[in-house]
Structures are given as C-alpha cells and as structure tokens.
Specification:
Radius of gyration of chain B: 22 Å
Shape of chain A: globular
Largest sheet of chain A: 10 strands, mixed
Number of helices of chain B: 12
Number of domains of chain A: 2
Order of helices and strands of chain A: HHHEEEHEEEEEEEEEEEEEEEEHHH
Number of helices of chain A: 7
Number of strands of chain A: 19
Strand content of chain A: 35-45%
Largest interface: A-B, 36 and 34 residues
Strand order of the largest sheet of chain A: 2-1-5-7-9-11-13-15-17-19
Distance between the termini of chain B: 37 Å
Structural class of chain B: alpha/beta
Oligomer: heterodimer
Largest sheet of chain B: 13 strands, mixed
Chain lengths: 415, 480
C-alpha cells in the first residue's frame, strides 16, 4: 500500500497549486498516516470495527489518486422531488455544483480553501489521510442573523466509473450569530468497493442553530467513514440525525464541544441493516461549561448476519455543573446471526449533574406479537408494525416537519 | 514507646495502620528463577508445582504490563520487591492455635479477629494470611467431619495434590494477563476450599489477609471448588499497615462451581488507602474469576471496596453450564486521592444463563472512580438475560465518576438491559436529616448507606455491620 500511496500522493500534489509550506504540511500528514495505517482493533475506538481488516476483506488494494480534471455530468434524476432546496453536488468526490439560488447572495459566503491548509485533528489516522489527500475544500459561511429559507442538500454521488478508490472530502461551515442551517447529506451510490472518508467541521457562533440529517439508504458496497466536529458557543443548538442503512460499512462519528452556556446537542440515529453489513455510530459529547444539555437516542433493527455498534461518550468537565446528559440505545436482533455491541460511556468530573444512560438489546417482544396476531394480523404484519413503531420513535425526534416527512417517506415509516 | 504513641495517633485515621514487630524470613529481593525456586523449596513443594511456577515465569517474561486502565501509577520495579516474607516463628508450623507466636495473636486481636474466641463463639471458620503465609485455620475438626477441606493452599498442595492439580489454573490460566501470570509464578499462600458433593457448608468460611512487612508484594492464591449440589459462603477481609511507599497486592482467586453448586464470595477490602495527600497505600491489582462449570450452578460476588490507593479488579463469572447464574454486587468508595477502576465481566456461554450486576460507586475528595464492565452473550447462549445497574454518587467537583460498560449481544433470543445514573446527594435530603438533629457527617453516612442498601443486603450478617461502619468511616471529612 505504501508505494501506491506515495505515488498517488505525488500525483495529487502535482495537480494542486500549493506553496512549499503547504506541501510540507501535507507530507507530514501523509507520513503520519503511513506510520499508523488504517485504524485497527487494537485501538480502543475501533475495538468493534477493525477498519484495516474490513478494507482488506472488501476492497483489497486501494488506489488513492483521483483524476479531477474533467467534469462529470450531473444526473438530475437523483435530486429530491417535492422539496425546494439548495444543492451541493459531489460526484465521485469531485465537487460539481454549488447552488444557493433560493437564498440572498450576500448572506452566504463560499470560500475556496483548497490552497490553504487547515489541519483536522481527531487523533485517528483517517484525519491524517484526509489532510494529505483532500483536493478541493470549501468553507461556507452563513452571515449574522441569516436563516436559510430552504434546506441545503449535499448529494454524495458515486458511479461505476470508480473502483477500489479512496475518496477524501472536507467541508467547513461557519454559522455566525443567530444564523440557522438545515443540512441533509444524501448518499447516492451506484459504485462498488470504494472507501469514502468525509470530514465536516461546524463552528456555531452564539444562538446559531444547526440541523444535520445524514441519510445512507441506497444499497451499495462501499465503505464509508464520516466525522463531524461541532463547536458550540453560547445558546447554540445542534441536531444530528443519522439513518445508517445502505452501505456495506458505515461509521459515523459525531464530536460535539459544548463550550458556551445553554448550548445543547441532540444526536438521534437509526440502524436498519441486514446482509452482512457492519455499521457503527460513535458520539463524543464534551460538556465543557455550565448549563449544557445533550440527548442521544439510537435504535437498531438488525437482520441476517449484520452487526451494529454504538459507542457513545458523555464527558463532563469539572466546571460543567448543571449538566444534563442522556443517552439511550436499543436494539432488536431479528435473527440469530446478528450482533449488537454497545459501549455507552460516562466520564464525569462535576458533582451537580444529571447524567444517565441506558442500553437494551434483545428479540422482538413475543407478547406484543401474540397480541397483534390475536387481533387478526399475520406474523409478518405484526412484526412490521412493531418495527415501524420502534423506529418511528426516533424519526419523531426530528424537529423540522418538512424534513421529517421527507425522511418518513424515504424509509417507508408510517404513522 | 514514643514510636508506639505516634502509631496510635495515626490509628485515628486508619484503624488497621499498625505494624507488628515480628522477625521475618524473606526471600532475596528481586524476581528471578532462584527466588521462585526458593519459594517453592521453603514450601516443600512437589516438582509439578515448581514446574507450574517456572512455566508461568517464562510466560511472564514475554508479557507487557497493561496500561489501558484509567488510574495511572508510577512504574513498579519488579526487581525491587520481596516476593516472600514470613514471620520467622512460622518456619516450623504450629500444630494448633496455642503454639502460635503470641505477638501474631495480638495482631489479629487488634484486627478484630480473635482467632481462639472466634473459633469458639462465632461459628465462622477463619484462615488468616499474614504477609505471605497462612498462619491459622480455625474450626477445622468440625469441617473435616463433613468432608470439607479448608486449609492453606500450601498444605493442600501437599495433602490434596489431585484436586489442586486438576483445578489450579483452570479458571485463570497460566497464560492470562500480566499480574495473574506473575501471581502464578510467585504466589506464596492463600486458602483452599473444597466442598464435597451434596454438602451445604454449615458455617461461613473466612480469610483475613494482612500485609505486614515493608517492600513486600502480597501474592495469595485462593481456590474454591464446590462439587455437585454443594453450597459455600466465603468471606475475605484485608488490611495493611500504613507505609509511605506503595505496596503491590496481586492475588488470584479462582472459583469453580460444578452442577447445582453455589458459591457466594464476599469481600470487604480495607487495605491502607494512603494518607490525605495520596502518599503510600496499596495497589490492589487482583484477578478474581469464577467458572460456573456445571448446570444450574451459581456464583455471586459481593464486594465492598473502601481501601487501597488504587483498586483495579474485575471479579468475573464465566457462565458455561446451562441455566447457570452469575451475580455481582459492588460498593466502591474512594476518598482523598484514591483511585478505583473496578467492575465485572459476565461471559454467557451456556443456554438460559442469567446475570445481574448492581454497582454503586461513591467518589469524594480528589478521587477517581471508574466502573468498567463487560457483558458478552455468545451466539450459543440462547435465552440468556442480563440486567446491569450502575449508579454513581459524586461529592464535590474535584472528583470523578465514570462508567464504561462494554455490551455485546450475539444472540437474538437473549436480552441485555443496562442503566446507569450519576448524581449527587440532594440538598433536600441533607437538609431534612440535619433538621432532625443529625450532624452533616452522620447525615451523609445515612444517605450513602441507603444508596448502597441493595448491595449491603447481600453481605452475610457479620460483614454487613462492619461494612456499614466502614462506609461511614471512609467518607469522613468529605462533607463541606
């Protein structure tokens, strides 16, 4: 892998217009990655999901160079109908379109950061890989007091042109005071056996509101890793929803730093997976100051040899009195070969706090099935109804009604 | 005399902080094959036992000290420890209590274990381990009548080699982790219990451990075997004198429960926790593991952890037999600069296995407490159940309380439920108690005892009283 990576790195650098200093930084990141390699089971955070093995087994040799010189045709058929929205379109990792035509031009600033390196540190080698190999990267600034009229949908589309590729993406968002952004990440993959490595950074200034919905619904054979870093100042709210379902492997990490008083973070997630898929959500909520709040709800329905992992951590600093932290993960294992692993962790250094977590996993409740069947439903209908109700609970947590309906339709959950 | 007075003054802080001036026989300092041979030789051990030790030592040399735990400690120099220390008068073992060194007896009296009286009045059989050697076992004859073997493990190696050979290392194998392997190589003494088929042990069996000499590590080994349909309740208590340096305690405890047998293992651990500034104290790195080998067997661990500078242990159950049950009840209290990383592992292998974990953690002062636990239901363990509850109580904002559960479910017919909460003592409760005339400390002690009640109830009577007092003492000075 090393030689390939070095070669691909040189090719990538050639096409970028970087200063010597920036090249040095990229090289440094590359060396870091070469030293550590892909994360493996020996690292605590990757204990349940050995990415190194997963890549070896599913992809084999990866190549890291992507030719971004020619444009891809944007296939408009993938766009969401019935919801007016702004768009950012990635095709095979190349940014093809940024379209904010519903919004006031002067309220949104788009800065090309491709030629300034802003390093991303999260202590795992994937951030090094991303630092070294991202091609274009943009920063989107929402101006003071501006609330986007329409949601922004980021289309992550891949097609059969790529095979065994590693794609690295990065976006940076800054939400200035009193601004609001609704963001949907929609994964549309028709490619196979690629590794996507996506890093987002959000910086929320006072009173800003971020709503981020990640939807990985379409069946595909790709391996994905997504990392969200969310910095939260005073009175900010972040809401994250993850539907983890389509990819072969998908690990989403959310890191929230609640730095300002009265800031709050909500993370809700659904795993709905089958057929040997392996998905993970890992959250780290850092309560760094007084009067902050976090809430997490993760539900899983697992079938046919699938495996879901939830690692959630609530950290409470000694200054963070009056913290309210809650975390609940529930899983239904539908057949014998499925597996659910959880590591709900509390690390608390302040005494005046209210923190709790719960985790439960097991089979569908036989009594409930019996009840429904006694009312005339057949077994499959009863099962559907119970699963529907189980997951509806999470979808109902979505605060934006427009998007809630969209997601309900997408995954076919009835009220 | 002056020294004596100083010591007595100190006792006000830690009741068991005295040391006894008894001449000790020690192995040469350091860890090498010769020391292991020395230990084996002085114990007059058969060749197979020495081989066992040497094999463990070979393995030990390849192992690295683990460092994933939360409480970090300065590096231990394993060559700078004494691995064997015994009161000199023990060189020729006493035949009965009357032949014991009077000074030893006095020490035990101070500890609250008057061996002779206990033998007569209490109806608890006691095996006392002083530094590295088991000094006295009471109530022997009564037990022998029922066919129960309760003796120091060094004696069991001589007299019951078949049993020891069969079960020693069967739950904690030689190749286990760093500290367990070290123990296998250098363990000095400990208790051995065998309950024959169908016998319900008529009294509580009890061991008291004490580290007396300085610079010694204590490495006992306890092996309890409950044969088919038998029952035993076993108590363990620990104390150590106050010394400025840290002392290592790395014991191994193995439990084996065969078909329909039940073992109840209770610990009140009150090793010296170090002084108010965190100087000195015991490193309690113990490996405790129980194997529910047979069908319908049951192992339950109850622990009250109030002492030690660092407590790092996970009493575990391997539920191998169908319908077997594992339980874990724990209270861990840390104050001042104490640190604890404790919890349990429940490994479900058999069908219809059940486990229950109740853990209560209280941290005060500058201390740090972690509950770390594993519940693993394997794909063959159909229809198994686990329930886990861990609650933490924080007193002050200089301490920490953490919960790190690992939950693995590979069986769709099995259920796991886990809950954890962290909170502080409510002002209202304190106010209410103080209004009724209790001092702040009494109020805290009362509330904490209530918080721990679920676990305290699991302890045998004699221990419950001691444990309740201990809970109060451990938290002294933590209010305000």
């Amino acid at each position: 892998m090393k030689e390939q990576l070095q070669k691909d790195f040189d090719n990538t650098i050639k096409n970028l217009n970087l200063s010597q200093k920036d090249i040095e930084i990229k090289k440094f990141s590359l060396d870091n990655f070469l030293n550590k390699g892909f994360p493996n089971r020996k690292e605590e955070d990757w204990k349940f999901s050995d990415l190194n093995q997963i890549i070896k087994k599913n992809i084999g040799e990866l190549s890291f160079y992507n030719d971004y010189t020619s444009t891809n045709k944007v296939d408009t058929s993938v766009f969401v109908d019935g919801l007016e929205h702004n768009k950012i379109v990635f095709i095979n990792g190349r940014i093809e379109k940024i379209d904010f035509h519903y919004e006031k031009k002067e309220q949104i600033e788009i800065i090309d950061q491709s030629e300034t390196i802003n390093k991303f540190d999260n202590n795992n080698s994937l951030s090094d890989l991303n630092n070294a190999l991202t091609n274009k990267s943009f920063k989107i600034v929402i101006k003071k007091g501006y609330q986007l009229l329409k949601p922004l949908i980021i289309y992550h589309t891949t097609n059969s042109k790529i095979w065994s590729k590693n794609i690295n993406l990065r976006l940076d968002f800054e939400l200035l005071e009193d601004s609001c952004l609704r963001l949907i990440d929609l994964f549309n993959d028709t490619s196979e056996k690629n590794f996507l490595n996506i890093f987002y950074n959000f910086n929320l200034k006072e009173n800003a509101i971020l709503k981020n919905y990640k939807i990985d619904k379409i069946e595909n054979k790709n391996i994905k890793y997504s990392f969200n870093n969310i910095e939260q100042n005073k009175n900010t709210i972040s809401e994250t929803f993850i539907l983890s379902s389509g990819s072969n492997f998908f690990k989403s990490e959310i890191n929230c730093n609640l730095k300002g008083e009265h800031s709050s973070a909500f993370v809700n997630g659904i795993f709905s997976i089958d057929n040997n898929k392996h998905h993970e959500i890992r959250t780290i909520i850092n309560h760094l100051t007084e009067n902050t709040k976090s809430f997490q709800l993760i539900k899983s329905v697992l079938e046919n040899n699938s495996k879901a992992v939830y690692q959630g951590k609530i950290f409470v600093n000694s200054d963070a009195q009056k913290t309210d932290g809650y975390q609940l993960s529930k899983a239904i294992l539908l057949n014998k070969d499925s597996e659910f692993n959880a590591k709900p962790e509390l690390e608390i250094y302040a005494d005046d706090v209210k923190c709790s977590h719960g985790s439960a996993s097991g089979s569908l409740n036989e009594d409930s099935i019996f009840y429904l069947m006694s009312r005339g439903l057949n077994y499959n209908q009863a099962r559907e109804l119970l699963i529907n109700g189980f997951l509806l609970d999470v979808v109902e947590k979505i605060t934006d009604s427009e998007i809630r309906n969209l997601i309900k339709n997408m995954i076919g959950i009835k009220e | 005399m002056e020294n004596r007075q100083k010591e007595i003054d100190k006792l006000k802080d830690y009741k068991y902080g005295f040391s006894t001036d008894i001449e000790n026989t020690r192995a040469p300092k350091g860890l090498n094959e010769d020391v292991i041979k020395f230990i084996s030789n002085i114990k007059k051990e058969p060749q197979w036992m020495l081989d066992f030790r040497l094999k463990a030592f070979e393995r030990f040399k390849q192992l690295k000290e683990p460092d994933w735990q939360k409480p970090k400690y300065p590096k231990i120099d394993y060559q700078d420890l004494y691995y064997y220390s015994a009161p000199k008068s023990m060189d020729d073992k006493p035949k009965s209590l009357d032949e014991l060194d009077p000074k030893l007896l006095e020490t035990y009296k101070k500890l609250g274990i008057p061996l002779q009286e206990q033998a007569r009045l209490n109806g608890i059989a006691v095996d006392a381990v002083f530094d590295s050697v088991s000094v006295a076992t009471t109530f022997r004859e009564e037990l022998i009548k029922q066919g129960i073997i309760f003796c120091p493990i060094s004696e069991a190696i001589q007299k019951h080699p078949d049993l020891v050979k069969k079960y020693l290392g069967s739950v904690i194998p030689l190749t286990d982790h760093f500290f367990a392997t070290l123990n296998s190589a250098v363990f000095t003494d400990g208790s051995f219990v065998y309950i024959p088929e169908g016998v319900r042990c008529p009294m509580e069996l009890s061991t008291y451990f004490r580290i007396n000499a300085s610079n010694t590590g204590q490495f006992e080994r306890t092996l309890i075997i409950a044969d088919k349909g038998s029952y035993v309740s076993y108590l363990e208590g620990c104390t150590a004198p106050m010394r400025d340096e840290n002392q290592l305690h790395a014991a191994n405890v193995e439990l084996v429960a065969l078909d329909d047998a039940e073992i109840k293992y209770s610990t009140v651990q009150n090793w010296y926790p170090g002084d108010k500034d965190g100087k000195g104290g015991i490193y309690n790195f113990v490996t405790k593991r129980g194997l529910c080998k047979g069908k319908n067997s049951k192992i339950s661990w109850t622990q009250v952890e109030t002492g030690s500078a660092i407590t790092w242990k996970y009493p575990s159950c391997i539920l191998k037999g169908d319908n077997s049950v594992g339980e874990f009840y724990s209270i861990a209290i840390t104050n001042n600069h104490q640190k604890a990383d404790t919890g349990t592992k429940m490994i479900h292998l058999g069908k219809n296995t059940k486990s229950k974990i109740i853990s209560k953690g209280i941290s005060a002062g500058f201390s740090d407490m972690t509950y770390r636990g594993l519940v693993d239901i394997s794909s063959k363990a159909s229809n198994s159940n686990n329930y886990t509850q861990c609650d933490s109580l924080l007193m002050g904002n200089k301490c920490g309380a953490h919960t790190v559960p690992y939950i693995k479910n590979k069986n769709s017919e099995s259920n796991i439920a886990h809950e954890a909460t962290t909170s502080k003592i409510s002002e209202e409760q304190l106010h209410y108690c103080q209004q009724r005339g209790l001092s702040a400390e009494e109020a805290v002690s009362l509330i904490v005892n209530g918080f721990c009640k679920e676990v305290l109830q699991q302890l045998p009577m004699e221990f419950a009283v001691e444990a309740q007092k201990l809970v109060g003492i451990s938290l002294e000075g933590s209010v305000g």
